[in-house]
Design goal:
Elements lengths: L1 H16 L5 H16 L3 H5 L2 E8 L10 H14 E15 L5 E15 L5 E12 L5 E7 L2 H8 L3 E8 L5 H9 L4 H6 L3 E9 L4 E8 L2 H13 L3 H5 L10 E4 L9
Parallel strand pairs: 1-5
Antiparallel strand pairs: 2-3, 3-4, 4-5, 6-8, 6-9, 7-8
Length: 259
């Protein structure tokens, strides 16, 4: 009998250790945030979020962002998708750095919806976490999913085609310049740029670049910055055949399709 009482006491002890008094309330908040996202209720979502929120996005190389950027991200998804819905595989309690349950919430699941511009169906699996402050508002949030794959699969593409014809013997110098920190890495990190691909054709002595942008307006802002405030293009000119004529930019373009 004593052994049974002891085992029962241990079970109660472990049961108490595996709960956090704030978890149930925080779980309801997290689930409500996702539900309101499907309803595109931005005001309702923001009522659950701290103005001091730190958000970690799934974009490669991104840094944590604050409240204003978080709001912009939510609005961007609302504008980009119809019928967006989250189906959770599970909701889990999270832990702090010491491994103790801290009332935070984690979830694995799938977002579905339809991209407004392309009509393509979203089927995005991922992992999300939400940490909470003393008032029960979300103070930290993070996304872990294939952002590039999502963009490539369902978002429209605003492609920019660039030809850089170089002088004989200047291929390596131009390649080094394009690969320098001031070159394509800066372009790829610019607001609105999804990325670039580059190849060199030995017969024409020409670099061919294809960029994908959130919008041609954002590309225009980038190009204006390169032309008026930055000196990178002026460094390219001496290496190009015909000087400035060796650089050709083809944009905007329409009627994008993938097959």
């Amino acid at each position: 009998m004593k052994k049974l009482i002891t085992l029962f006491s241990i079970a109660i002890l472990f049961s108490n250790c595996n709960t956090n008094p704030n978890y149930s309330k925080n779980l309801a908040t997290a689930q409500k945030l996702f539900e309101l996202h499907g309803q595109e209720d931005i005001e309702g979502q923001l009522a659950l979020v701290s103005k001091d929120i730190e958000s970690n996005t799934s974009m490669y190389g991104s840094e944590p962002v604050g409240y204003d950027q978080y709001v912009g991200m939510l609005k961007g998804y609302h504008a980009a998708f119809d019928n967006i819905k989250y189906t959770a595989d599970n909701w889990l309690p999270g832990t702090g750095e010491d491994g103790s349950l801290d009332g935070s919430v984690r979830t694995y699941g799938t977002w579905t919806g339809t991209n407004v511009s392309t009509g393509k169906e979203l089927n995005l699996k991922g992992y999300w976490y939400m940490n909470f402050d003393d008032e029960g508002k979300i103070i930290a949030q993070g996304d872990f999913f294939d952002f590039g794959g999502m963009v490539d699969a369902v978002y429209p593409k605003n492609l920019v085609y660039i030809e850089v014809e170089v002088k004989n013997g200047k291929k390596q110098e131009m390649l080094d310049l394009l690969n320098s920190e001031q070159g394509l890495p800066t372009t790829a990190a610019y607001d609105g740029c999804y990325g670039y691909e580059m190849a060199f054709n030995d017969e024409t002595n020409t670099f061919y670049l294809v960029g994908n942008w959130e919008s041609y307006e954002k590309y225009a802002a980038y190009l204006n910055w390169r032309q008026t405030e930055d000196d990178f293009i002026s460094k390219m000119v001496p290496l190009m055949k015909g000087g400035e004529k060796g650089l050709k930019v083809i944009q905007p373009n329409s009627s994008y399709h993938s097959y």
